[in-house]
Design a protein that fits this description.
This is Solute carrier family 23 member 1 isoform X2. Belongs to the nucleobase:cation symporter-2 (NCS2) (TC 2.A.40) family. There is one protein chain. Helix content is about 50%, strand content about 10%. It is built from 24 helices and ten strands. Strands 2-1-10 form a three-stranded antiparallel beta sheet. The two termini are about 20 Å apart.
């Protein structure tokens, strides 16, 4: 998972009413409209279009820059626990490697995966279990590695110290990625999504970032003034100036003119990072920052890592096993699997959001299965190459699709090729490894805050006036913070006498996203819901095999609302726990449902080179969960599932209607 600092809205590229809006009229009837129905909201280039080559390159560079913050952040977070805080050259190698693998995985996803223009990159979902594993007594860094004067980065002893840790991460990621491939290619992801709702996702994603407050605070605390400037600039560009257009000269043919470009909305993190970096350089040149290594603010100087650029090679080709043969421990595998589950659920949501923004039909089941399976393959490659992390779909790049209104696959191919090139060009990774520590800390404070908010935003599907839902979310979040803190301070009290079991327990219980996500999952699927409703207003015609539905007035909400309920007064029918509507699963599950296969869906999501449609069309392949279905395009009956569920034939909005953004 990555943070989405880039804004999602501005006047033209992405309208405020983009998306599917549900309306409740005065009589309680639901109305909806699809914003894509107007021509103004259609993408300039759809997923199947091929823009001019120069536009592909420019927009590919934009996608690279949009993902830059998340790509660089992951290796920098892991550096301290890998004993690399005083070895910026090796940090630059890790940055170059994650660039290279992200480009490779992006190309695999576009050509063989879900086939939507989604960029792949490092995931924060793997950071928490990785740090938990590296905090085990066997993997804690020796004290001498924290003292820069005692570290000789070229010595075999130091090299072995950090390489054995990253090899342990590699092995755990590679084994956990096999689980993700199994879930994807076997079609299990659809089954799992029936039980995983917003009350599971919200604490899981929020607890990806919340435990990292210590890392962000420590980096920012090196010089709070520089960190505050970085935070101020990011907030200024991404929130206050996001709708300010900058005139850009454009020359076409024989005439030149100016065009408006929303610079601050597209590149807020990059601009803030560069300006803060420049400020540190000026303060270094003028000696305004202390020169003594032990003085407060010394690490804000740009010359503390200045030799990295001269030491880094111009070209360095990352390769599998570059740090040695991976090792495997049971504790690390179980911890990374918790991150895999969180990453998979987020990616499914990204697929549906991306399809809507690029004008494609919702991805059918085989495309989602294939996308998750290819992401598992990407994690396997990331482990083999030694990034210290996995790969996942980048949400902020999905947002960039809405801003640019260019959803062509070829643009993402250009971005993937650019990432490959940046991974081979060694000086690029070295340049990012020299970012002053307080600048990184300021960036972390904003990014981790946004990730936390993204997790909480999943509660928009849930009735938060329900005491049941408030309890589940609050209890899960609090335990996800309290239990890992206690286990870290009292690890000796959980000794079972079996070393491997002790390590598994410690890694899982010190991973906040696992604790909170598991509690949210268990409680949401077991705690029943009581019906707070009265006055059955009227009955609808028989629905779903004769089970009549009624509209009831829900008095548990501050503003009374009419809702559909079974007329027998039960919530979801006999034998089912909880209210799907109250738990947020009614809308949530509908969003995960398969789209009907139309001719366009078959064209968008089929495999390249006619695989599955012209070649390899054996009847046996039709039983593969990730294989395109033959003959589906002739039915012409599929439409956007959400639009079909709530579509109003007139398309009109009820007078005084209240609106809920999905």
């Amino acid at each position: 998972m990555s943070s989405a600092i880039t804004g999602w809205e501005h006047p033209d590229p992405l309208r405020a009413d983009d998306g599917l809006n549900c309306h409740h009229d005065g009589q309680g009837g639901k109305k909806a409209r699809q914003a894509g129905s107007s021509s103004s909201s259609q993408p300039t280039y759809s997923v199947l279009d091929v823009p001019p080559w120069y536009l592909c390159i420019l927009l590919g560079i934009q996608h690279f820059l949009t993902a830059l913050g998340g790509l660089v952040a992951v290796p920098l977070i892991l550096a301290k626990d890998l004993c690399l805080q005083h070895d910026p050259l090796t940090q630059s190698y890790l940055i170059s490697t994650i660039f290279f693998v992200s480009g490779l995985c992006t190309l695999l996803q576009v050509f063989l995966g879900v086939r939507l223009p989604i960029l792949q990159g490092g995931t924060f979902a793997f950071v928490a279990p990785s740090l938990a594993m590296l905090s085990l007594p066997a993997w804690k860094c020796p004290e001498w590695t924290f003292n820069a004067s005692l570290v000789n980065t070229s010595s075999p002893e130091f090299t072995e110290e950090w390489q054995k840790r990253i090899r342990e991460l590699q092995g755990a990621i590679m084994v956990a990625s096999c689980v993700q491939m199994l879930v994807g290619f076997s079609g299990l992801i659809g089954f799992l999504m029936r039980f995983i709702g917003p009350l599971t996702i919200a604490p899981t994603i929020s607890l990806v970032a919340l435990p990292l407050f210590d890392s962000a605070g420590s980096n920012a605390g090196v010089h709070w003034g520089i960190a505050a400037v970085t935070i101020f600039l990011i907030v200024l560009f991404s929130q206050y100036l996001k709708n300010v257009a900058v005139p850009v000269p454009v020359c076409g043919g024989k005439k030149c003119h100016t065009s408006k470009f929303y610079l601050f909305q597209v590149f807020p993190v990059l601009l803030a990072l560069c300006l803060s970096w420049l400020l540190c350089f000026v303060l270094t040149v003028t000696n305004a920052l202390p020169t003594a290594p032990t003085a407060y603010g010394h690490l804000a100087r740009t010359d503390t890592k200045g030799n990295v650029l001269s030491q880094a090679p111009w070209f360095r080709f990352p390769y599998p096993g570059q740090w040695g043969l991976p090792t495997i421990s049971l504790a690390g595998v179980f911890g990374i699997i918790a991150g895999v589950i969180s990453s998979m659920v987020e990616s499914v949501g990204d697929y549906y959001a991306c399809a809507r923004l690029v004008g494609a039909p919702p991805p059918p089941r085989h495309a989602v299965n294939r996308g998750i399976g290819i992401e598992g393959l990407g994690c396997l490659l990331a482990g083999a190459w030694g990034t210290g992390n996995g790969t996942t779909s980048y949400s902020e790049n999905v947002g960039a699709l809405g801003i640019t209104r260019v959803g062509s696959r070829m643009v993402m191919v250009a971005a993937g090729c650019l990432l490959l090139a940046m991974g081979v060009f060694g000086k690029i990774g070295a340049a990012f490894a020299t970012i002053p520590t307080p600048v990184i800390g300021g960036m972390f404070l904003v990014m981790f805050g946004v990730i936390t908010a993204v997790g909480i935003s999943n509660l928009q599907y849930v009735d938060m006036n329900s005491s049941r839902n408030l309890f589940i979310f609050g209890f899960s979040i609090y335990c996800g913070l309290a239990i890992p803190s206690w286990v870290n301070n009292n690890a000796e009290k959980l000794q079972t006498g079996i070393l491997q079991l002790d390590q598994v327990i410690q890694v899982l219980l010190t991973t906040g996203m696992f604790v909170g996500g598991f509690l949210g999952f268990f409680l949401d699927n077991t705690i029943p819901v009581h019906l707070h409703s009265r006055n059955k207003a009227w009955k609808d015609p028989p629905f779903d095999g004769g089970a009549r539905m009624v509209l009831v007035e829900d008095c548990s909400l501050p503003q009374r609302e009419l809702r559909e309920r079974p007329c027998d007064g039960t919530l979801d029918g006999p034998g089912r726990e909880g209210s799907l509507e109250e738990r947020g699963l009614l809308v949530w599950n509908q969003m995960q449902e398969d789209s009907e296969e139309t001719a366009k869906a078959l064209e968008v999501y089929r495999l390249p080179c006619g695989i599955g449609t012209k070649v390899c069309t054996s009847s046996c392949t039709q039983y593969l969960p990730f294989w395109p279905r033959l003959g589906a395009g002739s039915r012409e009956r599929g439409r956007n599932l959400l639009a079909r569920l709530f579509q109003d034939p007139s398309g009109a909005r009820g007078k005084g209607a209240s609106e809920t953004k999905l």
